[in-house]
Write a structure and sequence with these properties.
The structure holds 2 protein chains of 2 kinds. By secondary structure, chain A is mainly alpha-helical. Chain A has one domain. Helix content of chain A is 55%, strand content 6%. A 5-stranded mixed beta sheet of chain A has the order 5-2-1-7-6, with helices on one face. Chain A has a two-stranded antiparallel sheet with strand order 3-4. The longest helix of chain A is centred in the N-terminal third of the chain and has 31 residues. The two termini of chain A are 38 Å apart. Chain B folds into 2 domains: 107 residues, no CATH class; 194 residues. In chain B, strands 6, 7, 8, 9, 10, 14, 15 and 16 form an 8-stranded mixed beta sheet that branches. Chain B has a 5-stranded mixed beta sheet with strand order 1-2-3-4-5. In chain B, strand 4 and strand 5 form a beta hairpin. Chain B starts with 7 loop residues before the first helix and ends with a helix. Classes of the chains: A mainly alpha, B alpha+beta. Chains A and B meet through helix 2 and helix 4 of A and strand 3 and helix 9 of B.
Chain lengths: 363, 313
């Protein structure tokens, strides 16, 4: 089929996320593509909440769009309930003495942060100290969480080179639990300072869980955006970072703390990029857009622009993905692996995965 | 639908439109834009969507879907088709000849996944004078056959698969799709009425033989109009059986409606309240039947009776 005229997220989705009153300038045809992009990026629930939050805006939204907003609000409410159920079960299973930290969506929900309303988490991310990892794993296994089926190689990959265990799930439950022992892959060049993380933990009032300090929450989202995936569809990580900044970065001192902690977690270059795109795409307020983090070299910035444009933003491409996007995604994957592993380990990993693809598993 | 067969030029134009711009189909509760290069699908849609106002240029669709040929070299050996929405392909490919059933199931999938602004009951809905009968049942109970027959005897059809309940207004919305008749009901409905327009029979699909009954113009004309729930029927077909009406107490009607719905659990209190309202205000019956016309007469009588339970209370 002939490719469609392509609608970029830059036309309306990003302006809407930056300032929801942008919808006043949108036609029904604009909504037609924007709904698809927002849903693809899993951001429709967040948008819907922001729109509903301002009753004066709703009359400016075409009638045909209202149902989509309500649907995503209802779906997100169900996800929220699922997260709460999972947290309740975890609370009952985990031993009282062990410090357990909620990361990302689960943390925002437990903290009841307004910017996270309408998020649709697929999993609950937990962080424990490396010394507690085995104990936490066996406690959860005894309480009914089952690990995803993996072969011996994958088990070793997760345990030695990753920063989390294979996902676990109670059969029949909607959400997976990811148990982390740090916030960046252990073999990557970004090396989070675990002692620093631990020193910043904050207890959650009325709960057995902790959360990271605000600056560490931002840095974790930054690392997740650039290192924890192939970057495809990570716009919602950027939206989280935007939300955390608008909430927590109130004065000059907050920015100094963020800058310093990013440096110590060796994520200052990634932070620069994240702030750059937050400012450019989401109009995130910040003192001097290029003053925080470590400014990367020009070629690196050019490459990252290509990756972010084509891999991070959703796109409507009925009838096929444009070639440049496929290339950018390939590059993103390559970069992901490159940053994650030293060259010898990467070579070994790719050999194993390539060979495994040729020889089908016996099971 | 025009009764004369289209000229070759019309056929080419129809296929090209479906392929490139696509067509916009208004089901009532949603508008779907379909694109497909498959010529046979264009013909089948012309037949079973004949009474719909089909648009060729529209500003907005709730779901943009495509039914395309399968990928790779195999398509030359054994052509397949695949259903796609926003880059997602929820099903394994079907044989290319089954493009229509694939499209129909695909639209059901989209609506069941994304229509969470509504309580989606698993039920057929028909109406007379704005008062709706909810035909709730488990598959194989003869719900689709009776629903099809009721449309052919003058009821307005709102839906065969989804009872689309708006939890805000309490009204039922149309989700008017061709009625998927299975196995023996295809011939039963063909013999039941000369007015039945039935598409080609697709043999050996995952649900057996399937053919689609085209909704009539009386139904498509009111597709944007809701209806007030007035009566709940749990049909049960018994071959050669006599008509048997068993009143269902509200709590029974509630659980049979709720636990048969597509998204009852997902909507939580919203769906509880909406379904409880129906159970409290609409009389409900289990209807055993062996003869379609006898069953329809009985439903007509029940619908003509003043609404009992709630009004008396």
């Amino acid at each position: 089929m002939r490719p469609e005229p392509r609608y970029s997220a830059k036309h309306h989705l990003l302006p809407l996320l930056a300032d929801v009153t942008h919808l006043r300038s949108m036609s029904l045809a604009d909504w037609d593509s924007t709904l698809r992009l927002a849903r693809q990026a899993r951001l429709l629930g967040v948008l819907a909440h922001r729109i509903m939050h301002d009753p004066a805006l709703l009359p400016a939204v075409p009638e045909a769009v209202h149902g989509h907003l309500r649907s995503s609000i209802n779906f997100a409410a169900h996800r929220l309930q699922m997260v709460r159920i999972e947290l309740g079960d975890l609370e009952a299973a985990l031993p009282a003495g062990m410090a357990v930290v909620l990361l990302k969506g689960a943390a925002y929900i437990a903290e009841d942060l307004p910017f996270a309303q309408g998020r649709m988490p697929n999993d609950v991310d937990l962080l424990v100290a490396r010394r507690d990892l085995d104990a936490a794993e066996s406690v959860l296994a005894a309480a009914g969480w089952e690990a995803e089926k993996t072969d011996a190689y994958d088990q070793r990959y997760y345990r030695e080179w990753s920063h989390e265990l294979p996902p676990m799930r109670i059969p029949g439950h909607a959400l997976e639990v990811d148990l982390h022992h740090t916030i960046a892959p252990v073999t990557s060049r970004t090396r989070a300072d675990d002692a620093l993380l631990e020193s910043g933990l904050r207890p959650l009032p009325g709960s057995r869980f902790h959360v990271l300090s605000p600056a560490d929450q931002i840095i974790h989202s930054v690392i997740h955006l650039f290192q924890d995936s192939e970057m495809s569809g990570r716009l919602r990580d950027l939206v989280d970072i935007d939300g955390l900044i608008r909430l927590h970065m109130r004065e000059a001192g907050d920015w100094l703390v963020l800058h310093e902690r990013a440096r110590r977690h060796r994520a200052d270059e990634l932070l620069w990029f994240a702030l750059h795109y937050c400012h450019e795409w989401l109009a995130t307020p910040m003192p001097q857009p290029c003053g925080v983090g470590r400014r990367p070299s020009m070629p690196t910035r050019k490459l990252m622009d290509l990756l972010m444009h084509h891999a991070c933003l959703p796109l409507i491409a009925d009838g096929g993905e444009p070639r440049v996007r496929g290339i950018a995604r390939g590059l993103g994957q390559l970069r992901y692996h490159w940053l994650r592993m030293p060259p010898t380990l990467l070579a070994r990993h790719l050999c194993h995965k390539g060979f495994a693809r040729l020889v089908p598993r016996s099971d | 639908m025009s009764s004369s067969s289209p000229s070759p030029a019309e056929l080419v134009a129809r296929t090209a439109t479906l392929h490139h711009a696509g067509i916009w189909i208004d089901y009532g509760a949603c508008v779907v834009r379909l694109r497909s290069p498959i010529a046979a699908l264009a013909d089948q849609i012309e037949l079973v969507y004949g009474a719909y106002p089909i648009s060729h240029q529209n500003e907005f669709a709730d779901y943009h879907v495509a039914v395309d040929y399968g990928r790779g070299l195999r398509r030359h050996l054994r052509p397949t088709c695949r259903f796609e929405i926003d880059g997602i392909e929820p099903f394994e490919p079907f044989p290319a000849a089954s493009a229509l059933p694939m499209f129909e199931w695909g639209v059901n999938w989209c609506f069941a996944q994304r229509g969470n602004q509504f309580v989606l009951l698993h039920a057929g809905v028909l109406a007379r004078d704005g008062r709706a009968v909810i035909m709730a049942a488990t598959p194989g109970s003869g719900k689709s056959t009776l629903t099809a027959a009721m449309m052919l005897r003058g009821f307005r059809l709102l839906s065969d698969e989804f009872g689309v309940l708006d939890p805000v207004s309490g009204d039922l919305r149309a989700m008017l799709k061709p009625v998927a008749l299975k196995n023996r009901s295809i011939d039963v409905i063909r013999e039941f009425s000369q007015e039945a327009v039935i598409g080609p029979t697709f043999r050996g699909t995952r649900k057996g033989d399937v053919a689609h009954l085209a909704p009539n113009r009386a139904s498509t004309a009111l597709v944007r109009q809701g209806a007030r729930p007035a009566l709940v029927i749990f049909p049960r077909f018994v071959a050669g059986g006599r008509l048997e009406l068993k009143p269902q107490p509200p709590e029974q009607a509630f659980s049979r409606l709720a636990f048969n719905s597509f998204n009852y659990a997902l909507l939580g209190p919203l769906s509880f309240n909406a379904v409880a309202d129906i159970a409290a205000t609409c009389p409900a019956y289990e209807l055993g039947y062996g003869d379609l016309d006898e069953a329809i007469r009985s439903i007509e009588q029940l619908l003509a009776e003043p609404c009992g339970v709630a009004d008396a209370a």
